[in-house]
Amino acid sequence: MNWTLLLIPLISGVIGYVTNFAGIKMLFYPVAFFGFRLPGLSEVAQLLPRRFQNVPGVLTGRVGWQGVIPSRAAKMGSIAVDKGIAKLGSPAEFYEKLDPDVIAAHIVATTADEVRDLVERTIEREHPTLWRDTPPRVRAMIHRRVQEQLPDIVRTVTNDIGVHIDQLLDIKLMVIRHIEADPNLANRIFLEVGKKELQFVINSGFVLGTALGIPVLIVQQLVDSPWVLPFAGIVVGYLTNWIALKVIFEPPVPRRVGPFTLHGLFIRRQAEVADVYATIIAEDIVNLANIGTELTTGARADRTRDMIANALRPAVDRAIGPAAGALRVAVGAEEYDAIKDSVADEAISYTMTPLSDAGFNEQQSHAIHALLRERMIELPPDDFGDMLRSAIQEDEWMLILIGSVLGFAAGCLQMLTVL
């Protein structure tokens, strides 16, 4: 007997570890596509089965690789909403947790000085002679009334946003935009949420590979063919990935099998994972700054701007107070309305800009975190498991195929060194 054959189980363990390690890394890296364009590939790709069209780069005629998760940034954003965020809260609930009254107070506190400049700049631009000829006492009165009215004006705006938030904010589009802009964010969600399970896949490759190496040793002795090892490498690479993925997610509820209790590794960590997931979403995705940006620049921004402007126009009349009639007569109804519209339109950005304040965002994110964590802990096991499983389920075959191909290559190397 060739005593070097006893190394087969150990080398099979190494193969299992290396193939699983490489497969997991290829799920997430590189973040940007690395490779080259191959003329004619994009045309051929149209004829391939859908599974092969999903291989990063194929449809665009490129040969190389990009991490599966970042290559599907838009899809990952959609999954993050459909399988997670949408089940944990509505736009109205998120906005309510951010506390519109506290938001209004913050806007007032940070824009009081700027509003004075806004009033002067707008009136001077629209009707420079009027403002220059206005007595200082009247100017001071207008500024004083604006400052007095500001808290009520801003509170009206923030409350109106809350009432209409479901029509103004598309959470799904917001999440997709942010993850497309920063594919690393998709990686962070799945790497941090599934950190222990992904490491388990890698480590289990060695254990399972070593165990599977024992029957390989026996077959090698019986068949006595050098090609046993390369083909065994395919089996080891395939099974180590397949078994590890099954153990992570199944069964979703505890099941007794003799003296053992089987329970998906990811599912049993629901409370721990809930805290990690809630932290990422509250800090980086569903936060006040992103909501403010989406409201004013997103797909429904025109509705937001119209609503805020409509709320501000009558507020201008109230702020000017008794001087409104005199101003209307002095400049004419159309000029007065133009001044009013200009103040309202320019004030929109003043209303939303304070929402990007980092310190205030961190302070308000705690409420969103608490809501997400609480709801996530209450999710049924199947729904909870779907949050991670759905991201890779469609491409599991690719992870397993990578394991098989790398296993074959490692088996060939093993054949050259052991036999």
Provide tags for this entry.
single chain, 419 residues, mainly alpha, two-stranded antiparallel sheet, two-stranded antiparallel ribbon, 22 helices
Descriptive overview:
With 419 residues, the chain is mainly alpha-helical. The strands form two sheets. It has a two-stranded antiparallel sheet. Helix 5 packs antiparallel against helix 21, helix 7 packs across helix 19 and helix 12 runs antiparallel to helix 15. The radius of gyration is 31 Å and the shape is elongated. The termini are close together. The relative contact order is 0.17.
Q: Give the helix tally.
A: 22
**What string gives the helices and strands in order?**
HEHHEHHHHHHHHHHHEEHHHHHHHH
Overall structural class, as computed from helix and strand content, comes to mainly alpha
Strands, total number: 4
Let me know the largest β-sheet: 2 strands, antiparallel
Q: Which strand order does the major sheet show?
A: 1-2
Strand content: under 5%
Q: Give the helix level as a range of percent.
A: over 70%
Average pLDDT number? 79
Oligomerization state: single chain
Specify the overall morphology.
elongated
- The Cα radius of gyration reads 31 Å
Unreliable residue stretches = none
Q: End-to-end distance, in Å?
A: 11 Å
